[in-house]
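thread: overnight batch results

M.L. [08:02]
morning all. the overnight job finished for the chain we discussed friday. pasting input first so we're all looking at the same thing
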Amino acid sequence: MQCVSSPRLRVWAEPRQGAAMRNHSLVTRPVQSRFGLALTMAVVSVFVVWLNAKADETLPSSTPDFPSVIRAHADQLVKVESDKGARTLFVSAIGPALEMGDVARTLGANPLPAKLANELLVPDLTAAVLRLMGSLVAWHLASTVRQAVRDQQLPAVAERLFGSLQARAWLDQQGTAPWHESLNLLNEVVASPEWAKGNQEKSPTTLLLAVLERATRLELDAMQAAYQEWDRIRNWKDRVRGFRGQARLCGTWQWIIHNHQQQHQEQKLSLLFPPTGNTQATLPGLVEMIVLGENVYLRWEIDGRVQEDSLQFSKEGQRLEGTFVNSQGGWGSISGKRTAGCAP
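M.L. [08:03]
and the structure it wrote out:
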């Protein structure tokens, strides 16, 4: 699935102004500033609705209703202060709500033996779950900040961003997250002396618009990241099956190709399939490999020519038998025999 790529929303552009101009309040220009803020909120709301609609069109019909899940578990999301807390919340509530009960059960089980955990890609799965939880926490934070600006509850903005030091420290650890820079930009405005002064009086419209624009950007970035991690997690079982299949195919094979097109010509090859995860030792021309159970599919592309192999394991995984077709009209049989086991 190709994840939704959303354009950046530029709601406002703050011109360079002198100190006197920057300190104009909503009271000084009530009609223009309030109208501008209301218009901006309307634009933002319409854009968020449009983005959700586009996401629903592009993603599978089974895509979860993230906003509803966030609202239902809002009180728990704001209390996430560690990887352990994020994982516990996913296992107990978020995972089942997103119809990922199998993932929740795997992560919630007693510690698995190291070998089995690696075979099930548990370290990779755990990292993806933590990234998803971080995105949901950031998404919720951004939406509550936007709502606070809309309701003119300005002290709640700073309280939400800086209220829990532990929760904020955990978010700051997500330095590689796609939304982290947007979070920093939002913090810059709310931590500024102008914002603190505005809480005592009336916040200038430009500050309100800055917070609104940056909160919206954070929400959109977190939304996109959440969809990406959700897609990765939901394909976890497929990756496990693929890795197991690659591990089973790993080793040295003697390949005999019988081409019916070329007067039953036979060609003998020696192929070395690398261990799982070794991308540097990929066989030349092999662009796709799928191993599901006893079935093996290989696709080769060399100098514009394409060949597809459909094979099956036999003799307890020591032999491969099947057929091939290629883009030049060739077809025939393939017989493979394992001559050496998997080498690290």
